[in-house]
Amino acid sequence: MAKITLDNLAHSYLPKPTREDDFALKELNHDWDDGAAYALLGSSGCGKSTLLNIISGLLHPSQGRILFDGQDVTNAPTAQRNIAQVFQFPVVYDTMTVRDNLAFPLRNRGRDEAYVAERVQDVARMIGMEEELSRKARGLTADAKQKISLGRGMVRKDVNALLFDEPLTVIDPHMKWELRTQLKKLHHDFGHTMIYVTHDQTEALTFADKVVVMYDGRVVQIGTPEELFERPEHTFVGYFIGSPGMNVIPAKVEGRQAYVNGSSIDLGRGYAPLDGKVEIGVRPEFARLSDSDGLPVNIRRVEDVGRHKIVRADFFGNDINIIAGEDEEIGADMTRVVFDPAHVNVYANDWRVNGEAA
Predict the structure, then answer these.
(1) For 117, which of 64, 107, 196, 320 is 20 to 30 Å away at the CA?
(2) Does residue 276 surpass a pLDDT of 80?
(3) Which keywords label this protein (predicted)?
(4) Where in the chain is CATH 3.40.50.300?
């Protein structure tokens, strides 16, 4: 296992980058703890795979360093970094059996054959392929081959880090939860440093100790699922995390009040004067309909999704969502909305601003 340090790290695919927008990965300075499980989360093109490939040594950064336990490995080849990487699409040896595919990393390092057999059996059980150990990989389905790739990544106990680049893309939906659970158990049992790239928030939030949210080549927040939900540090985090995501509403902020179209909203905290683009962010879970309190809202439709209802509404020309209870009656007189002041976030130029308690 290893602590991973990103020191002034940045990367551009252009030969001579001259401005910030030329960089696919903007400058990063972060320490990732030894033995922790991280998920790199963001939309396509945000820099997740670029960062993962720099960590693994498949890509050399345009600037900065990467260190494992304080040792500079920026120029070290992948083989010397002692990592295991599982890619989006399965990489297996078709002419080998499942058993030999799983055993390959161990045999390649000269491990005792009795240990190899024991470890292969353990991993095969973990990925649900004990019955297929003697089968050739050729002819297996794509999801079965990806399970072999996952198993081969997990078979070694001595790696500095396990890196996963959207490994469940080709896995059947009913298998995804099971394999995520197995990865989580592997982390619990062996304490590997794990980095898991995904654009799926469910995968990220259920797998990781901490989620690294990326946007436009930047890390905009690193936090626990609770921190990302309660206090999104960037409007993208609020939008991307949650279903539906956070309501982001243009506003004017003065002290403890936000003003939308002249109507005031209590913020619960005081704020200094703000410049630039000012918005408030409220998650649908912290908004409620009322027949008397709050500000006027126009309900467009109500979607019953089983566990709760999602109210789609217009709020002074802004589309907002409100979560209502499964058994909550939504009458024609419920034409107002109330926001919980303790859960209203304030943003200036997309970044969260800390207020001061009264």
Answers:
(1) 196
(2) yes
(3) ATP-binding, Cell membrane, Membrane, Nucleotide-binding, Transport
(4) 4-240
- Give me the pLDDT at residue 275, please: 92
| Cα gap 312→320, rounded to integer Å | 6
Q: Please give the DSSP secondary-structure letter assigned to residue 301.
A: E
Neighbouring residues of 352: CB distance < 8 A, sequence distance ≥ 6:
231, 232, 233, 234, 281, 345, 346
Listed in order, the ranges of the chain carrying CATH 2.40.50.140 are 247-353
Q: In what helix (H) or strand (E) does residue 288 lie, and over which residues does it extend?
A: strand 287-290
Look at residue 62 in the predicted model and tell me its pLDDT: 95
Q: How far apart are CA 206 and CA 309, in angstroms?
A: 23
Distance (Å) of CA 355 to CA 249, 286, 358: 18, 18, 9
Please tell us whether the domain made up of 4-240 is placed in CATH 3.60.10.10: no
CA distance 172 to 142: 9
Whether 212 has a pLDDT exceeding 70, the answer reads yes
Q: Which CATH number fits domain 247-353: 3.40.50.2000, 2.40.50.140, 3.40.50.150, 3.30.70.100?
A: 2.40.50.140
Rounded Cα distance between 310 and 270, Å, is 31
Query: Quick count: other Cβ atoms within 10 Å of Cβ 326?
Result: 10
Tally the residues of the chain.
358
CA-CA distance, 187 to 206, in Å (whole number)? Answer: 13
Residue 1 has pLDDT above 70, yes or no: no
- CA distance readout (Å), 66 to 63, 111, 161, 216: 10, 29, 13, 21
Q: Is the model's pLDDT at 281 over the cut of 80?
A: yes
pLDDT at 358: 60
Q: Closest Cα partner for 229 from 220, 240, 218?
A: 240
Q: How large is the angle between the packed helices 173-190 and 113-127, nearest 10 degrees? A: 140
What distance in Å separates the CA atoms of residue 64 and residue 50, rounded to the nearest whole number? 14
Burial 115-134 (b: 16+ CB within 10 A, else e): ebeebbeebbebbebeebbe
The first and second tokens of residue 2, run together, are 């290893």
